[in-house]
Design brief:
Length: about 220
């Protein structure tokens, strides 16, 4: 039970933080829940797609292949497709910042399932795993979601068609680089990893602030 709580705590903290940041026109709780459930579904679909890919294309798990194909391509691809299914028929998607809200809820739903699998695992899991994933993996998924939601929010409210493609390509590239730096055994790769970590936080917070300022519900005067 304690490990379950430790695996869930950073995800719930991220959901609560983003709900607070959505200050001008908050999403209904049912849509918050829907985004999270879509994230759960994406985790199971990712597992199935990864298993299918391994069967169809036998390969050697190098750091590059694992980071960009086994992880980033499948995970971000599945999340992107489910994100489109979540937002396209959604009338509550009525301001640019909502793109970030839904993408992060979906990403954190994915991270919730993934975190539970790792943290409660009898061999890989434990308190150390819970701590490291709370600091790195869960925020990482949330920050990739910020990028996906940013471009989808811009696309819906007057942006060019290229932004829909950027909504997949940017998180894919960032996710792949993030995992690649982590998987490299040489200590040298710690430097670009932590540089990317700082960059993701700075960029993510700027993206959120920018779309909040674009809200049509923002008070003026």
């Amino acid at each position: 039970m304690v490990l379950f709580q430790l695996a869930s705590a950073p995800v719930l903290a991220g959901i609560f933080y983003l709900y607070i940041r959505d200050r001008y026109e908050k999403e209904p709780w049912r849509m918050v829940a829907a985004g999270t459930v879509y994230g759960w579904i994406s985790a199971f679909l990712t597992y199935g797609a990864g298993t299918l890919l391994e069967g169809l294309l036998p390969h050697e798990e190098t750091p590059f292949y694992t980071a960009f194909f086994s992880a980033a391509l499948i995970e971000e691809g599945v999340k992107f497709l489910l994100m489109l299914g979540l937002i396209l028929p959604n009338r509550q998607f009525n301001e640019p910042f909502d793109g970030i809200v839904y993408a992060v809820f979906l990403s954190l739903g994915f991270a919730w399932v993934e975190n539970l699998v790792y943290v409660v695992h009898p061999v890989m899991g434990g308190y150390g795993t819970a701590l490291s994933r709370a600091v790195l993996s869960v925020p990482g998924h949330g920050l990739f979601g910020v990028q996906m939601g940013y471009y989808l929010g811009r696309r819906k409210f007057g942006g060019g068609r290229w932004q829909r493609w950027a909504a997949f390509m940017v998180p894919f590239a960032l996710h792949g680089a993030y995992d690649y730096f982590l998987l490299r055994p040489e200590r040298f790769w710690d430097i670009p990893f932590w540089g990317l970590e700082v960059f993701l936080w700075i960029l993510g917070l700027r993206r959120m602030r920018e779309l909040l300022e674009r809200s049509p519900f923002r008070p003026t005067g």
